[in-house]
Write a structure and sequence with these properties.
There is one protein chain. The protein is an alpha+beta fold. It folds into two domains: 139 residues, SMI1/KNR4-like (3-Layer(aba) Sandwich); 84 residues, SMI1/KNR4-like (3-Layer(aba) Sandwich). The chain contains nine helices and 14 strands. Strand 12 and strand 13 form a beta hairpin.
Length: 252
């Protein structure tokens, strides 16, 4: 899904494992245009990062900035572009490196490139995220000990965007807000095996299993009525989280 800039800023500002600093002025369109002339069009969520922070890191991964063309930390440094791979973040001392897969379109929408990671030990390449925003979300989740997400459906969402907030009030949490919301409503105590993954902004929560065979169903239940009998007390709203969100998350 298309990254949400508001939730993206919340994620970055709430992630203690990130290093960042606001820039007095974003890189000019002239500088960005010069960079794009060398490496190709930049993804919208990476452009957002450049405008909001300009410099920083996600965990140990140092994120490239827009600067002098041959500076090591600049996105346009000669070593960063390798065929259809553009390295936008790298860990120091030969650690893992993160690349945009240029020319491909992922699940995050037009202009966003999927992200692959090259293992610093053996050089093998693996899929990591569907966008730069997803890269930040997955890194934040890993730093918080959430793996890539509480179940495959939420992990797929986070690979594109750190949560979703729709016009009808449906809010799917990102890795920066999910732990706090589950602690607030004591979900582990009252509904073991379940995770509160979002809410409808009207008093109902959205719960999914993080154990068992059915980890795809989303159930709607009052936040004041969370119990172990989620399937019996709640309403099953979808078995396809991504498709439901794309359709505007109708609640009936």
């Amino acid at each position: 899904m298309r990254p949400d800039p508001t939730l993206l800023r919340e994620l970055v500002d709430a992630s203690p494992g990130f290093g960042r600093r606001a820039v007095p002025a974003p890189p000019s369109e002239e500088l960005i245009g010069a960079a794009e002339a060398r490496v190709g069009p930049l993804p919208p969520s990476y452009r957002w990062w450049l405008s909001a922070y300009g410099h920083g890191r996600a965990g140990r991964a140092e994120i490239a900035s827009i600067g002098p063309a041959d500076a090591h930390e600049s996105l346009t440094a000669p070593w960063r572009l390798d065929g259809d791979r553009l390295c936008f973040a790298a860990e120091p001392d030969g650690g893992d490196a993160y690349h945009f897969a240029l020319g491909r379109t992922g699940e995050a929408g037009p202009g966003e490139y999927p992200v692959v990671v090259r293992d610093g030990m053996d050089g093998e390449e693996y899929p990591f995220a569907e966008s730069f925003a997803g890269f930040l979300a997955v890194r934040a989740a890993l730093l918080r000990g959430l793996r890539e997400g509480p179940n495959p459906s939420v992990a797929r969402l986070w690979r594109s965007t750190p949560g979703v907030l729709l016009d009808n009030g449906v809010h799917l949490y990102g890795p920066h807000s999910l732990p706090e919301r589950n602690e607030t409503f004591e979900v582990a105590r009252y509904a073991p095996g379940w995770t509160l993954v979002g809410d409808d902004s009207g008093g109902d929560g959205l719960l999914m299993r993080h154990h068992g065979r059915d980890r795809a169903s989303v159930h709607r239940l009052g936040l004041g009525a969370i119990s172990g009998d989620v399937t019996g007390a709640g309403e099953r709203v979808t078995d396809d989280l991504a498709g439901w969100l794309r359709a505007g998350a109708p609640l009936g």
